[in-house]
């Protein structure tokens, strides 16, 4: 169409007062660049709607969809930059420069477009990887300029809203559901400090809240920050029957260190080995989100590769597989290798939060699980009659008992009658209720705008008032029409959800006090590492040789399809992906490694 318009300009006979053909062509290009930007602008709202029906239908988990949002955002802003440059190139030859700062009441308003473009550029710069990783708080705060961008986009060209209204409605409905779910503070059922410094937190969940082993939660600690939501992988299995969700927090970044310090009185902990009672420390939760299909169950053999705290989702997978074998389900993984890389030997204690024999006695008869642990820092070995100081590879069970026999500090939670569990109202919750809320919102929008158009009042409004009217209609559609459906959802769920009673805490925990007893006094020391039953080895002072490891795995799994799941640093993911590709595509190899990244990175 732009080419046809250019030909029309070339063939037109010049009239008195017409602008130059070059300026007209530039104006034509600028208009179509602006229209082209509407495509990525409309689409970029969908991937960041965490409970989006589109994501659920396509099976794309939110953590992967974020990448599409990044690409679409970049495309949108760069097209708008080109739109702006062309605009500034032709504007002086067609309009008086004073019109740049005027707010036109009809047609296109120039000044709001400049403000929207400026907001988009700020978001673009702060979303660059180096800025985002080094200054996450800056990225997080400036990304809320999307509200400024959207508002001034409406002021700039409100007539184009019709092309983008559906995904924007979907996004704000998702935000509203998240707000309703997370406004309720959640009690901590139990807290455990592991020898590595990682903290295990457990929360109560409604019995009919469903999630999968690769799910994750967004967590807000209001006493640390009222705005910073951070994702944490779920480490529990939905089949454990305890009506609880478990996450692990390792104090690495500023936020996790602040949460760690808030839960633990550091000075008191060092001097007396005590854990500060964390149950006045309330959290707010969103989710769970993540893969809605347990895709790892399609493989008979699994290789799990984890670095540091990245082992958390694999703890959930190991528990899930063991529970499914216990339930005698069919077509389950029967061979699992876990390659676990850590800097510090104490980080291995995360594996000992699971005792596989407690979940499934004699599990070795049904599923072979082998641990390959790598401690990359230098370790001074203890000399004893069983372990030579010259050894670089140590049997996991012996190494675990010798080096990791440190107690974990644990505190159980409040009386069960006082427990406040997380809300069932989640964007990734019951499909029927989510769909009903979405359709109620869309129908509400159509009806409200239909009434406005029938009365003829919309045509009489200026650009400014039309944009504000759109904002009001969006609010009424989401809150006024979608809100009542959410209230009905909450009402029916309260009637169907039984009150948590007996099995709220994990099987490994002491029973939580009832409403007539006093809370626990002091800390409980646990030495779970004395009872580990994992099989495998620990390689000391070395990093994994991926070529050797995957060559061995290729020989072991010759002729099979193997699922390879990786959670860790980007370099580790690249190295493992390369080995999977090399062996799968090699003529000399008869194994297919199917690579899956399960790392969540913004």
TrEMBL record:
Pfam families: FAD_binding_8, Ferric_reduct, NAD_binding_6
Keywords: Membrane, Oxidoreductase, Transmembrane, Transmembrane helix
Region (Disordered): 1-21
Membrane topology term: Multi-pass membrane protein
GO CC terms: plasma membrane
Location in or out of the cell: Membrane
Stretches assigned to the FAD-binding FR-type domain: 181-295
MF GO annotations: oxidoreductase activity
Membrane-crossing segments per the record: 29-48, 68-91, 103-125, 145-173, 433-455, 467-490
Cross-referenced InterPro entries: FAD-bd_8 (IPR013112), FAD-bd_FR_type (IPR017927), Fe3_Rdtase_TM_dom (IPR013130), Fe_red_NAD-bd_6 (IPR013121), FNR_nucleotide-bd (IPR039261), RBOH/FRE (IPR050369), Riboflavin_synthase-like_b-brl (IPR017938)
Predominant place of localization: membrane
Name of this chain's protein: FAD-binding FR-type domain-containing protein
Source organism: Marchantia polymorpha (Common liverwort)
């Amino acid at each position: 169409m732009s080419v046809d318009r250019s030909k029309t300009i070339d063939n037109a006979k010049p009239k008195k007062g017409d602008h130059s053909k070059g300026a007209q062509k530039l104006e034509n290009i600028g208009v179509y660049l602006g229209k082209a930007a509407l495509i990525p602008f409309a689409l970029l709202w969908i991937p960041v709607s965490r409970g989006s029906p589109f994501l659920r239908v396509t099976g794309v988990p939110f953590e992967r969809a974020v990448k599409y949002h990044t690409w679409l955002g970049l495309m949108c802003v760069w097209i708008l930059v080109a739109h702006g440059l062309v605009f500034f190139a032709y504007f002086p030859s067609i309009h008086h420069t004073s019109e740049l700062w005027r707010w036109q009441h009809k047609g296109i308003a120039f000044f709001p477009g400049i403000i929207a473009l400026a907001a988009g550029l700020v978001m673009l710069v702060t979303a660059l990887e180096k800025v985002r990783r080094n200054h996450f708080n800056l990225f997080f705060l400036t990304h809320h300029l999307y509200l400024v961008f959207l508002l001034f986009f409406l002021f700039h060209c409100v007539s184009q809203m019709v092309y983008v209204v559906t995904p924007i409605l979907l996004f704000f409905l998702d935000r509203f559901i998240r707000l309703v779910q997370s406004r309720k503070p959640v009690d901590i059922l139990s807290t455990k400090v592991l020898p590595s410094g990682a903290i295990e937190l457990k929360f109560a969940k409604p019995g009919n809240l469903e999630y999968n082993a690769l799910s994750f939660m967004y967590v807000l600690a209001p006493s640390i920050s009222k705005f910073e939501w951070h994702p944490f992988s779920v480490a529990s299995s939905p089949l454990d029957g305890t009506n609880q969700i478990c996450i692990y927090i390792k104090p690495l970044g500023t936020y996790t260190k602040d949460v760690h310090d808030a839960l633990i009185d550091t000075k008191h902990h060092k001097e007396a080995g005590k854990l500060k009672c964390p149950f006045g420390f309330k959290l707010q939760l969103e989710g769970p989100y993540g893969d809605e299909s347990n895709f790892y169950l399609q493989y008979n053999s699994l290789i799990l590769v984890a670095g540091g705290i990245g082992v958390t989702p694999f703890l959930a997978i190991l528990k899930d597989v063991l529970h499914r074998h216990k339930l005698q389900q069919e077509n389950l993984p029967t061979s699992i290798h876990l390659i676990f890389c850590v800097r510090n030997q104490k980080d291995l204690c995360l594996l000992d939060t699971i005792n596989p024999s407690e979940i499934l006695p004699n599990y070795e008869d049904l599923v072979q699980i082998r641990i390959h642990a790598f401690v990359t820092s230098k370790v001074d070995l203890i000399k004893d009659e069983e372990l030579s100081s010259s050894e670089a590879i140590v049997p996991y069970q012996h190494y675990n008992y010798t080096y990791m026999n440190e107690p974990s500090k644990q505190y159980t939670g409040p009386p069960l009658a006082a427990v406040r569990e997380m809300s069932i109202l989640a964007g990734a919750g019951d499909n029927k209720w989510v769909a009903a809320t979405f359709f109620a919102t869309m129908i509400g929008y159509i009806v409200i705008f239909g009434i406005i158009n029938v009365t003829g009042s919309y045509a009489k409004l200026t650009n400014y008032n039309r944009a504000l009217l759109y904002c009001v209609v969006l609010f009424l559609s989401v809150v006024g029409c979608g809100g009542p459906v959410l209230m009905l959802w909450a009402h029916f769920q309260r009637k169907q959800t039984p009150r948590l009673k007996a099995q709220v805490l994990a099987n490994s925990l002491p029973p939580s006090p009832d409403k007539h007893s006093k809370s626990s006094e002091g800390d409980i020391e646990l030495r779970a590492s004395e009872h580990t039953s994992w099989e495998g080895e620990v390689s000391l002072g070395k990093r994994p040789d991926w070529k050797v490891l995957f060559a061995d795995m290729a020989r072991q799994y010759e002729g099979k399809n193997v699922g390879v799941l990786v959670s860790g640093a980007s370099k580790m993911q690249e190295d493992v992906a390369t080995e999977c590709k090399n062996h799968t595509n090699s003529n000399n190899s008869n194994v297919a490694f199917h690579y899956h990244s399960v790392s969540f990175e913004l």
